[in-house]
Write a structure and sequence with these properties.
The chain is globular, with a radius of gyration of 20 Å. Strands 3-2-1-4-5-6-7-8 form an 8-stranded mixed sheet, with helices on both faces. The N and C termini lie far apart (55 Å). Helices cover 44% and strands 13% of the residues. It has helices spanning 25-36, 48-67, 73-81, 106-119, 135-139, 173-185, 201-217, 222-232, 239-246, 248-261, 273-279, and strands at 18-21, 41-44, 83-86, 97-100, 125-128, 148-153, 162-167, 189-194. The protein is built from 11 helices and 8 strands. It binds acetoacetyl-coenzyme A (CAA) and nicotinamide-adenine-dinucleotide. Nicotinamide-adenine-dinucleotide (NAD) binds next to helix 1 and helix 4.
Length: 295
């Protein structure tokens, strides 16, 4: 009490150009947020459809701002121009920081990260938006793990303030400081956390999802659970709807990582609705069917 607060340490690395790999729910949101807050971003995917969806979502969100009188049309056009969609790795060369946001699969992520490290100028900061996979596990694919850390955004990116920045065993302070600075520039509230499966938030959230799934396996009506959680308990959305928002495929992969990491707390049951829907390719809002149907 009464002591002067130290100013937060800022980084020597200046992020002028960002890139995101994956133009899905998260990659699209990260691209929108970066452009909206003024840092140009290259958005790379392996599918043109995904790039089109990502750009469509960004232009819808910006269009809403114009309609509500919160943004001028020329600013909207300039902001959209700050997102460069591409299918080519060679377009990523100018990025100072790359956020990997591809599927939640350690092998795919390791291959993507190793490829990036090989192709990019030395010193480029690499981050992963993984939900649950340990940063040290992903870092085994890298020759310079000091330039790598987790940068875990929450869905929907434009609305959720928190970003978890995950320090791997070999992550340098310079990398952490640069990523904290970038998160602040995006208008987010970063917290730096240690590495473990699920980091901080998903160690809380996935046991909650698992508890919900168990109720359903025991016969509970998922829509009634949602109604109680939303209308009476007061949360913005119940677990079934939130799983549809997150993506059942992503939730399935995350549950697997968490069950392997914390077998005493989590397990995957065959009759679990997340397992059943994942096998049936009912991935939630992203393909219009999950617990609920979407138009
Ligand atoms: N993308 C972008 N914007 C969205 C959106 C979306 N998917 N959903 C809603 N919004 C926007 C609306 O357009 C609206 O914009 P304006 O403020 O400009 O009018 C604004 O959010 C308010 O929307 P609503 O009135 O419908 O809702 P709200 O303000 O009451 O709450 C919310 C919005 C904060 C997203 C709330 O619904 C919420 O907290 N939901 C829970 C989200 C959550 O738990 N996310 C975590 C998922 S797990 C995860 O991310 C981690 C992981 O690793 C899997
Ligand atoms: P998504 O399925 O919506 O999108 C994944 C995208 O990655 C797809 O467009 C796919 O074409 C693309 N992709 C696959 N391989 C690629 C490659 N080699 N190079 C470039 N693009 C590639 O998934 P999502 O929900 O955006 O999740 C992405 C990551 O973010 C996952 O690690 C997930 O765990 C994490 N995450 C998800 C949420 C969420 O709520 N959905 C929240 C926080 C973190």
């Amino acid at each position: 009490k009464g002591k002067a607060r130290k100013q937060a340490k800022t980084s020597d690395v200046v992020i002028k150009q960002a890139a995101v790999l994956g133009a899905g729910i998260m990659g699209g949101g990260i691209a929108y947020q970066s452009a909206y807050k003024g840092t140009p971003i290259i958005m790379k995917d392996i599918q043109q459809d995904a790039l089109d969806l990502g750009m469509g979502e960004a232009s819808k969100l910006l269009g809403q701002k114009v309609q509500r009188g919160h943004m001028a049309m020329d600013k909207m056009v300039a902001t959209l121009g700050k997102i460069k969609p591409t299918l080519n790795d060679s377009d990523l060369q100018s990025a100072d920081i790359i956020v990997e946001a591809v599927v939640e699969n350690p092998k795919v992520k390791q291959a993507v990260l190793a490829g990036l490290e090989k192709d990019m100028p030395a010193g480029t900061i690499l981050t992963s938006n993984t939900s649950t996979i340990r940063i040290d596990e992903l870092a085994t694919a890298l020759e310079k793990p000091e330039n790598f850390c987790g940068m875990h955004f929450f869905n929907p990116v434009p609305k959720m303030p928190l970003v978890e920045i995950i320090r791997g065993e070999k992550t340098s302070e310079q990398t952490i400081n640069a990523v904290v600075d970038y998160a602040l520039k995006l208008g987010k509230s970063p917290i730096v956390v240690n590495d473990c499966p699920g980091f901080f938030v998903n160690r809380v959230l996935f046991p909650y999802f698992a508890g919900f799934s168990k109720l359903v396996v025991e016969g509970a009506d998922f829509a009634k659970v949602d109604k109680v959680m939303e209308n009476v308990f007061g949360w913005p959305m119940g677990p079934a709807y939130l799983l549809d928002v997150v993506g059942i495929d992503t939730a399935y992969h995350c549950t697997g990582v968490m069950a392997d990491g914390f077998p005493e707390r989590m397990s995957r049951a065959e009759k679990d609705p997340v397992t059943i829907f994942a096998n049936e390719k009912r991935f939630g809002q992203k393909n219009k069917a999950g617990f609920y149907q979407y138009a």
